[in-house]
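User: Sequence in, structure out. Go.
Assistant: Echoing your sequence, followed by the structure tokens.
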Amino acid sequence: MNPQKPKILVVGATGYVGGRLVPLLIKEGYPVRCLARNPEKLKAREWKNIELYQGDVLEPDTLSNPLKDIDVAFYLVHSMSNQKDFEDLDAKAARNFGRAAKEAGIKRIIYLGGLARETQNLSPHLKSRQEVGQILGESGVSVTELRASIIIGSGSASFEIIRDLTRKLPVMITPRWVKSLCEPISIRNVLEYLLGCLKEPRTRGEILEIGGGEILTYANMMKAVAEVLGKKLLIIPVPVLTPRLSAYWLNIVTTVPMSIAYALIDGLKNNSICTDHRIRELIPIKLFSFKESVHRALDREASGSVASSWTEASSANMGIPVTEGESKKILQDIRILEIKDNPKEVCQRIQKIGGDVGWYYANWAWKLRGIMDRMIGGVGMRRGRRHPEKIRIGDAIDFWRVEGYSPGSYLRLRAEMKLPGLAWLEFRVYRDKNGQNIFQQTATFLPSNWFGILYWYLVMPAHFFVFKNMARRIVNSTSPD
């Protein structure tokens, strides 16, 4: 680290952009600190020489220590959900952070917002993104706001929607928003602009628009992706598909769940193109074309080297403690087996669970459960895994989220499918008092009400066979069903 360089705080390091920005800052020699609600998610990132602080922008009392001695903060926080109060939460978070940054004497905030003209009838999400920039600026701290349209890169939710639609549907009946104009930008260029703002003082206090230089419709983008994939695509626009119906369709066909799909679709009615090109003079970089960006993203996916993904965004349920009263309501299915083979092989099977490998028994049943979840607006099974073997806390594995992980001994998953309660699935490998290697699999369910209790007992027969045979296959077999 270079002591002459400003000390950087990254807020939103667990997200898609933040997860790629931090290692670049480290490589450039900046002293880096990360603020996260759950720092455990960042400990597995293999980032060296960084400081981790626990804090929440919605809890102002948690911000003073993380902001101490910071020169520049990257604010990369925004809601991607359809909950009714997301605008109020975004505004509250920005107000809390701006006030704390001013009190801490921070010199600059660099914020990544959404690109659209303020004079348009903006979608609630785009409007919220721009209001956050305004609120941060009202704090009295110098703010640089970069406004971007669709970001193209491996792990980007917007890119995965276009990719999935193009891969799976040779003919698409589409709503009017496919004719909206946008200026997509490569994630690489976004990161270069964010880093460039640190080095270019003329960006202080400015609102700057960033794009890849090509103005395309969403139909143009889908046809270009189809060309890269070597597919033919026919698009038939119709006027009757509303944003909510479109989101339901994307929820079924793509990896992106209903909550995120609706937020993205609702913003597509607005043209999202650059009309201010000052950033190109202030920070001159090589802009990747749309097709170049698509090639890079697909190559990354094929190599299994996706650095960050939208699926890693913080889950609201992460780390929710179970109270003493609730613990009395817990229902469990526990399977304990002796490991007669090499315990390392058992641990490897646990580590590879989900995604392309599957769940070792009745994969058709798991897929059916994922389809049912998708039909009611859940995440389903299409998220897969970030990496076929590597695991880190915060990873999504199908419709689960990694909540605890210790290589070679322990994996705890929290369910993110639609359920009348909370659910976990745990795997442990340990030695008992007699020196025998033991495998323990525990399915835990905390019902939210009487319907949750009824649900558990209705599915108990299916769970009996699935969990019993899944445990047996993990311990005794390398080939999933």
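User: And one key feature?
Assistant: The two ends are 50 Å apart (CA to CA).
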